[in-house]
């Protein structure tokens, strides 16, 4: 039994990734013909085997349902902020007050931080610029700084970071 | 194709085109590199999102089933757009690209460049106050 499971884990070091690869391959070709299923299966086995040694262990998503609500929240924010920024860009440029903010972050692992920074960059008006080496500070360039920069920090921390924390359960 | 479907598709296309246009206008009008960086990130999110929705509706009416390629394009965009914006901002910092005079907290660029925590941030704020 153990030999069997070891062989299985050697053949499929990342079973979930393999499945996603197969699905994406079929979606890319938008077919479910036998030929493409076979080709996709071969790719789904070979690519993870080649990539497995490069893997860095990441924290798992603890609450998958939170991800759905997070995505919808993000979608809503992106749409609202898009209109705000569009008005700002077309309007008089004198009104734009850019600025930099250092946001203290509590997340530890790389994957949650990446998700947070991507979120910050996706929402218009803020671009994540860099992270300090100790991974405790996130530098954000803000297109339109409010008078009190604490507002930006609170927005990022309460609206996004707390939810990312919940998703990864840390 | 019925009139309503055509109307929906054109509305999404126009809205998407408008946002991409605003992104391009921003690229010309805004003054420094960091501020310009905000414009294309906008265009890719909502502008292309609208175009993709229009494409999904159109394909659904031509083929009778929704094609999934658009969803994949959205997925790839969502993954790649923030990474490019982040890398561009990082490179700009390392090249010491000029920032707008009005930019606040310019001292943070130097600490961010060296990836150091903003150590004397509180002191500076006290001085400002």
Question: Can you put this structure into words, describing what you see?
Answer:
Chain B: GO terms for molecular function: sodium:proton antiporter activity. The complex is a heterodimer of chains A (170) and B (129). By secondary structure, chain A is mainly alpha-helical. Chain A has six helices and three strands. Chain A folds into two domains: 3-54, no CATH class; 64-168, no CATH class. Helices cover 60% and strands 11% of the residues of chain A. In chain A, strands 1-3-2 form a three-stranded antiparallel beta sheet. In chain A, a hairpin with a 5-residue loop joins β2 and β3. With 129 residues, chain B is an all-alpha fold. Chain B has five helices and no strands. Chain B is elongated. The model of chain B is unreliable at 123-129 (pLDDT under 50). The chains are: A mainly alpha (170), B mainly alpha (129).
Largest interface: A-B, 41 and 50 residues
Total domain modules of chain A? 2
Question: Kindly, what is the distance between the CA atoms of the first and last residues of chain A, rounded to a whole number of angstroms?
Answer: 35 Å
Q: Mean pLDDT score of chain A, rounded?
A: 82
Low-pLDDT residue spans of chain B = 123-129
Distance between the termini of chain B: 64 Å
* Strand proportion of chain A: 5-15%
Structural class of chain A: mainly alpha
Envelope shape of chain A:
elongated
Any idea what the shape of chain B is?
A: elongated
Written as H for each helix and E for each strand, in order along the chain, the element string of chain B is: HHHHH
Membrane topology (chain A): Multi-pass membrane protein
Keywords (chain A): Cell membrane, Membrane, Transmembrane, Transmembrane helix
Organism (chain A): Brumicola pallidula DSM 14239 = ACAM 615
Subcellular location (chain A): Cell membrane
């Amino acid at each position: 039994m153990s030999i069997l499971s070891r062989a299985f884990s050697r053949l499929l070091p990342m079973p979930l990734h393999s499945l996603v690869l197969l699905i994406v391959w079929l979606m890319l070709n938008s077919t479910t013909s036998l030929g493409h299923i076979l080709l996709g299966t071969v790719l789904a086995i070979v690519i993870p085997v080649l990539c497995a040694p490069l893997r860095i262990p990441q924290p798992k998503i603890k609450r998958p349902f939170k991800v759905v609500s997070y995505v919808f929240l993000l979608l809503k924010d992106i749409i609202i902020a898009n209109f705000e920024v569009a008005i700002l860009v077309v309007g008089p440029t004198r009104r734009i007050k850019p600025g930099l903010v250092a946001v203290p972050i509590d997340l530890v692992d790389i994957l949650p931080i990446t998700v947070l920074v991507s979120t910050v960059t996706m929402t218009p008006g803020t671009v994540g610029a860099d992270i300090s080496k100790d991974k405790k500070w996130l530098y954000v360039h803000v297109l339109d700084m409010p008078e009190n920069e604490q507002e930006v920090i609170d927005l990022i921390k309460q609206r996004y970071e707390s939810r990312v924390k919940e998703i990864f359960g840390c | 194709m019925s009139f309503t479907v055509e109307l929906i598709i054109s509305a999404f296309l126009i809205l998407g085109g408008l946002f991409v246009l605003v992104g391009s206008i921003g690229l010309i009008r805004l003054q420094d590199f960091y501020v310009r960086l905000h414009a294309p990130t906008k265009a890719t999110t909502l502008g292309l999102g609208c175009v993709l929705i229009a494409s999904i509706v159109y394909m659904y009416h031509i083929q009778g089933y929704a094609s999934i390629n658009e969803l994949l394009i959205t997925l790839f965009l969502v993954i790649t757009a923030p990474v490019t914006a982040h890398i561009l901002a990082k490179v700009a910092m390392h090249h010491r690209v000029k920032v707008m005079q009005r930019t606040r907290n310019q001292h943070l660029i130097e600490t961010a460049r060296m990836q150091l925590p903003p150590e004397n941030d509180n002191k500076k704020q006290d001085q400002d106050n």
